[in-house]
């Protein structure tokens, strides 16, 4: 016999209600949801977290509800591109994980449908979209993931400033992802725009950094692995990714943060517009926002700071009070992203290194 948690129970109630919107049991939506309760799945999740966390999230949801959930691991840029290419016949039902700058870009293209989960009431306002387009499920601070052995060989201290990354001794020793494909890398780019006072100044910094970049990876988590293997001295990642690699045996890695200020991500979850399994997708979102859903991360060594106040904490999570975080405007970042990443492609990535 299938056992339903409160998420599955909410879904079952919607189905029995003959296709009514899930008001009162699985949240509300701002669009016509006449078919919302007609389907129990299966659902497919576009997942922006690490592979093992994507697997753990979907497995736990299926265990709790009996609804089959599968995932495809994609970076933020890839997700927006895939959603746009299949807008008239969506291949995904939910987007889960990855910085909400990308979600904002998807909202601007009509790729996300607003859904306000009852679980979202517990989430602080600064971690959710006021129109219900996305809800934040974790926070990650952008930092430096350095290989101490490699730094020692180069005679370079652990970096604690953005300017430290411009040291000629680090030529070819900094690994960062490409902001067109990676939400992490776009956070890096927008951090420079914000802290330096404008797009031109931010691009100038990235142009200087270009000379020290080993390669621009597709995935935002890859630079931490590259540093962990000793292929570069410094990787630019969210700090929880570096902690995960430390836990997995890359013991040369050390985490540091730029003293003049750094950016951060709010990792989101959202309903894909036009999902043909809307009731099941909404049940998944309820689960993802809940403390139980957010706690799944720690079971696979992912120590993001969680947004649900009832979720578990760990001393392996970053202490945001100890980090100088910039005033990161997610809406402005989302609006600027298409043009800014195009500029990066043309003005920086395509240029030879000195």
From TrEMBL:
MF terms (GO), sorted A to Z: thiamine binding; thiamine pyrophosphate binding
Annotated transmembrane regions: none
GO biological process, one term: thiamine transport
InterPro entries: Ferric-bd
Signal peptide: 1-26
Source taxon at top rank: Bacteria
One Gene Ontology CC term in the entry: outer membrane-bounded periplasmic space
Pfam families: SBP_bac_6
Entry-linked SUPFAM superfamilies: Periplasmic binding protein-like II (SSF53850)
Keywords, comma-separated and alphabetical: Signal
Name of the featured protein: Bacterial extracellular solute-binding protein
Organism annotation: Actinomyces glycerinitolerans
């Amino acid at each position: 016999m299938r056992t339903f948690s409160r998420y599955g129970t909410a879904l079952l109630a919607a189905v029995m209600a003959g296709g009514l919107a899930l008001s009162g049991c699985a949240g509300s939506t701002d669009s016509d949801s006449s078919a919302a309760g007609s389907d129990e799945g299966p659902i497919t999740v576009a997942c922006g977290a690490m592979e093992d966390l994507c697997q753990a999230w979907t497995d736990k949801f299926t265990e709790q509800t009996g609804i089959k959930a599968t995932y495809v691991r994609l970076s933020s840029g890839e997700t927006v591109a895939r959603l746009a290419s299949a807008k008239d016949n969506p291949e995904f039902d939910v987007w889960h994980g990855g910085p909400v700058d990308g979600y904002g870009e998807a909202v601007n293209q009509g790729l996300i449908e607003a859904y306000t989960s009852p679980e979202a009431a517990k989430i602080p306002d600064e971690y959710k979209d006021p129109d219900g387009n996305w809800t934040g499920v974790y926070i990650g601070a952008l930092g430096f993931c350095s290989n101490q052995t490699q730094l020692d060989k180069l005679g370079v201290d652990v970096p604690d400033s953005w300017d430290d990354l411009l040291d000629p001794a680090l030529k070819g020793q900094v690994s960062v992802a490409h902001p067109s494909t990676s939400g992490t890398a776009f956070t890096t780019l927008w951090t420079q725009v914000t802290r330096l006072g404008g797009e031109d100044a931010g691009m100038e910094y990235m142009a200087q950094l270009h000379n020290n970049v080993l390669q621009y990876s597709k995935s935002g988590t890859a630079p931490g692995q590259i540093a962990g293997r000793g292929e570069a001295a410094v990787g630019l990642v969210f700090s929880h990714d570096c902690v995960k690699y430390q836990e997995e045996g890359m013991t040369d890695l050390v985490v540091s943060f730029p003293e003049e200020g750094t950016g951060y991500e709010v990792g989101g979850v959202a309903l894909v517009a036009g999902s043909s399994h809307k009731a099941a997708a909404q049940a998944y979102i309820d689960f993802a926002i809940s403390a139980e859903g957010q706690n799944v991360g720690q079971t696979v060594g992912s120590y993001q700071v969680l947004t649900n106040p009832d979720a578990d904490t760990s001393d392996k999570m970053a202490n945001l009070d100890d980090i100088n975080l910039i005033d990161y405007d997610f809406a402005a970042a989302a609006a600027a992203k298409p043009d800014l990443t195009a500029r990066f492609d043309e003005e920086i990535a395509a240029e030879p290194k000195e």
